[in-house]
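[09:14] KT: can someone run the structure on this one? pasting the chain below
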Amino acid sequence: MAFDSPPLRNQDSPSLQSPDTALSGQDITRVMPHALGPEKSILSSMLKDPEQWIGLSLEEGLTRDHFYLPGHGLLFETLRDLNAKGTVIELVSLVQLLHDRGILDNVGGPGAITEIFTYAPNAAHFHNHLALVKDKQVLRSIIRTCTEAVSEAFENPEETNSLLDRVESSVLNIRQGNESTRGFHIKQSVIEVINNFEALLAGDVNVQGAPTGYVDLDRMCKGLKPGEMFVVAARPSMGKTSFMMNVAEHICIDQGVPSMIFSCEMTAFQIVQRLVFSRARFALSQIGRGFSLKKEDLIRIKRASEEVASAKMFVDDTPGILIDTLRAKARRRKREDNIGFIAIDYLQLLKSGSKQAQNSREREIGEISAGIKGLAKELGIPILVLAQLNRGPEGRTGKSLGVPRMSDLRESGTIEQDADMIGLLYRTAYYAETEEEKESEAGKAELVLAKNRNGETGHVPLTFIAELMRFETRARDDNDQH
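[09:31] RB: done, structure tokens below
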């Protein structure tokens, strides 16, 4: 496959020798929208400065499918994989690698690689060329979707509603796939949170590492240390996200450490709203008919919003984000803002783009877990990542009912291996069998530090204030395990 433009139309023939064509009318074949020059320019920049431009392309959601020529897409995929492995990319070894894999001819041969390398004298127009390539891919996607819709409309005219749903969903997927969700400064959301709060009122609707803020946990682990991966796992509704945000709040706002939050489940607005009102110790649930806001409430909310807005915290709420994309975004934020902490909600919602992971969920989780641990070591910062537990705690009896174990981690093998610390979070009242027991255990929670590679393990007693979505340190009592 050569890298030159497809041949011009032969007027004696209705067909074109191009990678992708679309039918228009009865017998007129048109070449799909494409931008070969910008494609070559993008690849040229990646070959000259892989760390800078491959990482940026992943942040922007560039994939093999964005390239019109299959050879360009194959070359991009090869460069992306080499960069993810930390392999040095240079022309001679790249050509040899492609030859050894038997795909050198598929990307045009050594001459085509050399031509691409010299194609763009500098990367000044990388962003413009990237936008052009993405725009052409959107046009091709629209053409394919509409062509398929036309065909289905003729073949299944009685399935009007279901066809309309499929077409609407397909078009929405095109838009969502073309949008790159960049991490942004949290200050951008504070005004929106406060405006929303005002609308609700109107009726419209000393440690070695970063301290977590929890005395017993900090005593055990001496803080979250650079390069460490801390997995906090729990069953649904135990408050994992609240715990994560409480730790992030203490590290970023109270300690002034620039931080980044990757939220695959909640939106940025929801994250910031929780943060502001939890910090202000104000329960949004109390707003309703007859509610009267006190002056001291307003003072706390104003102070909390100002503190959150001035914090150097960044939120990325891309759902189902690829681990390679997450790592690219984190690297850039480390370079530009020197972040010192990352929190991820949650591990099982991340994706791996490798072919090997497509047919094995266990392999995919392994790649994601290893990717997070590798990122922590690479950036030299602690990463707190949430994870789901299986139904094991519910199947236990007696005093063990609801108490989680490391073996309850979904696809636990690789997570247990990669994690430096594993904390298992649970609330005892959730599993209470009688009303009396539920009342006596109300608010009690524990974090079982089941693994600590560089320190002791044990139980961390906590109090969960549900209306504030907040965990606080709790003094031990006779029932707590030590």
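[09:33] KT: thanks! The domain at 36-178 is CATH 1.10.860.10 (DNAb Helicase; Chain A).
[09:34] RB: yep, looked fine to me
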